[in-house]
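Q: Predict the assembly, please.
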Amino acid sequence: MDIPYTVEARPDTGLYNAKVGIWLFLASEVMLFGGLFSAYILLRVGAEPGTWPHGWQNIVLGTVNTVVLALSAITTLMAWVACKVREFGKFKFFHACTLLLALTFLCIKAVEYSEHLNHYEIILTDGRIADGDMVSNDPAQDHVVIKGRVLEAKDENKLYDLRAQKDIPESEITIQRSQIAQMDNYGPWHNTYLALYFTLTGLHALHICGGSIVIGYLWGPGRKLWKKDPERFTNRVEVSGLFWHFVDLVWIFLFPVLYLT
Amino acid sequence: MDAHVEQFPPYRKADDHGHGHDDHGHEHHEPGFWGKYIFSTDHKVIGIQYGMTALCFLYFGLMLMLLMRWQIAHPGKPVPFFGPFLEWIFAHPGLPNPAAGGVISPDLYNSFGAMHGTIMVFLGIVPLAFAAFGNYVVPLMIGAPDMVFPRVNMASYQAYFLGGLVMFISFFIPGGAAQAGWTSYSPLATSIPTHGQLFWIIGMILLISSSLLGAVNFIGTIIQLRAPGMTWMRLPWFVWTQFITAFLLLLAFPPLEAAAIMQLMDNVAHTSFFLPTGLAVGGHLAHISGGGSPLLWQHLFWFLGHPEVYVLILPAMGIVCEIIANNTRKPIWGYKSLVYSVLAIGFLSMIVWAHHMYMTGMGTVISAFFQATTMIISIPSVIILTCLFMSLWGGSIRINTPMLFALAFLPMFGIGGLTGLPLGFNISDIHLHDTYYVIAHFHYVVAPGTIFGLFAGVYYWFPKITGRKMNEFWGSIHFWCSLIFMNLTFMPMFSQGMAGMLRRMADGGANYSAAVNSHAGGEVIGGLSPFIMSLHTPILWAAICLGIAQIPFIINFFWSISHGEKVGDNPWQSTTLEWQTPTPPPHGNFEHVPHVYRAPYEYSVPGHASDFTPQNEPEVSTPASPKIPTTAH
Amino acid sequence: MSESHPTTAAAAGAPETHDHPVDFNSYMRRCAIIFGCVLIAVALMIWTSYLPEDPFSWAKKVAIILVIASCNAFIVAGYLMHLLSERKMVYTILGFTVSFVIGLFALTIYAMNDFPRNTVIH
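A: Predicted assembly structure:
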């Protein structure tokens, strides 16, 4: 006996099996990201007033990523529509676009991560704080060069709002290693905000990778099923598309929460 | 009962459109050994895989418990017989031996404690109750050919196996296994300088993923693959409990997965999700960014932790219901109440979690909220127990091994449940939190509660899987010894807890007991009197006897596979669909799509020739020739 | 029930398509509109985040931005994921999920803020 309702819908629920499966899975993903978002809310609300960073992200790159992902959601839907009207050529085109857009997203993300990891906060022995992008950190030399700003110890809160620092001009600063009390780059260890940023966007990026692998499989080796059972293939495209749209949905909340607030 | 048969479209057959060589290969060629037993996608094989693995882990967890009980009763003394083995297995060059001289050091005790909890809950009970029994029985009970996603099913077992392997291996790495309790509270979890916690987190992520895949499968199967005529209110109650359990796993596990990812980041990437500003470890300020919240971990952990305990109990309740209906030869009393109660439990269990956190300084309003929901959730539990008790009234009770375990479940779960009430009240929990009272409470619910239900299930469904019954005499011995020794082990712990003995003390409270207040002229302070301390020894002996009492079960289990009494397809004369298949059910389970005509517990229906009517037996206008009801034993 | 492979979606039995057959070009137009709405929402959120601190505290800005994001999410979920034409079973599953997420957020945040204050006697 075969497993029924793999392609045609069960009359009383009106759904085929994979549809039920993917919505259940997406429900669990909502709880997963919900758990992380609840952590974000809790840690942000519980932080000391004035110590939660604003403006630490590159809004241009973030906006580009948002547009890229939204476009990929559109191309995903169109790929499914193409399957529904049985135009396989259009399906191939649209999902190729989806994969390229996904790759673009990940590359931009990688650029953002490396920008953060290259940004240093150096606490000097006299209490001042130098903050900027590392230009040169040669271990053989006795100094480091950063391109950024030096803040007085009393202005420490300005670190948390990059927009408030705009009145201080940026310049290349050479700092002797002997003057450095502590040096730390803007990785997840630096600050709970960055920890949340890296974890949330990292997990999101992993989901992009996973979704890309599934869509890539359907676009490539999986297309054999199109010839044997186009309806079943269309359903697979729809189900993977739903996952992709969910990943876009998560970004719709991640972007404003991490970049714009 | 109505005889309405819904018209369903014909199922697609494999040869209708020529597809499916990739996933219906079994119909064209026999899989080899690996495809049939190791990488099988058949729900019955996967169920057995889960069951065997889980039983092994349960026994391993029992061994850990015996080592711990020895240490509690004889702190600082070398473990007899196993001491040299422990010393050898935990030796690492360059590191102090945690079992030097055969003595269990406090660190080793803590890792045993943490792993006993983790293994019993996540590697033992959940896989056995939910995955093993569910996988084998649920598709059969609803008339389905398999689970809705067979390959996902296989993947979920493999993830479970890998997670179990990671947990098991963690014992043998330098520094040993996780030590921060099965609850892995931060900051302790990330402050311990060994890698055991890392292995624990990775193992948990694998196990959570396995459960999520399984949950999707179960819910999808029960929604989509019910046979024609199997309406929601005709489902055996066991299927309902598995359905709700799957929902709990689906929705409650992910926040713990999120928390585990954050704790992993704390451990590996030195973030401070759960580490507060100003944290000092070993007397020195920790080099962390701070700003984290240890309470956040607790909230996210217990958001799963509480639904988890319902995951542990619901499948066992379902099994007990099936067995009671079958062995009283009458329908279950209050089927509708049972269904609505289990739905209520499922929903409410997601909003009671902070009753595990009464001692974290929560204010009165939020504590009152959680206390109220906790009290409310006891109502459906009592309704369920009442329905099961009432089902015995007026029944034609057959006593066999499954029924013995099922009957004992009722008072044992009653004790466990009732002793939970003082813990659910904020005020009394102040005295009882983290004491042995808690240990006694939850062990009563899980050990003579759930595990008895699971034993009942093993004895009950063994004939369907193997075609033979397990030996009744040794089953009775197993039952009576387990019942007596379970109670002797856990009942004294209530007294110890009420006297103030705390959990997780490697020396069993010896230090507290010996505390002397010199200003008060040498009086003993604290409530751990010599009598309370002396209870450790009988508990140890009861626990050892409990471990020994499982040996007849193990021998009976394996011996009966080939030498047990041979029986037919429906030896218990049951009405539910899993007994209406050949034994063991073939691949695809049913020759033809079964049609369901009636409710699940049509026993002793007046006017019928036999005392049970299977769910898929069609209505007949004239009574059939009378079948002589046989008594099974 | 016809087994021939149709060129329109409706006859294929997909329950979430509308009564009229799927027209590729009309879908393209719909997608363009949806994409436009998403871009507008993103632009609005960015603009909101740059509003001056004085009348608009960060708390107010966060609230406005989250409302816009929710509208954005509604459009994506409703139209791109076909949620507006989905079945009752899916709504039931998601309904429970959303209520539990709200429970998780609300109860955890309430719990973190409800604790006895002024317990130290100076």
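The mean pLDDT of chain A is 91. Strands of chain A lie at 119-124, 129-136, 143-151, 171-176, 180-185.
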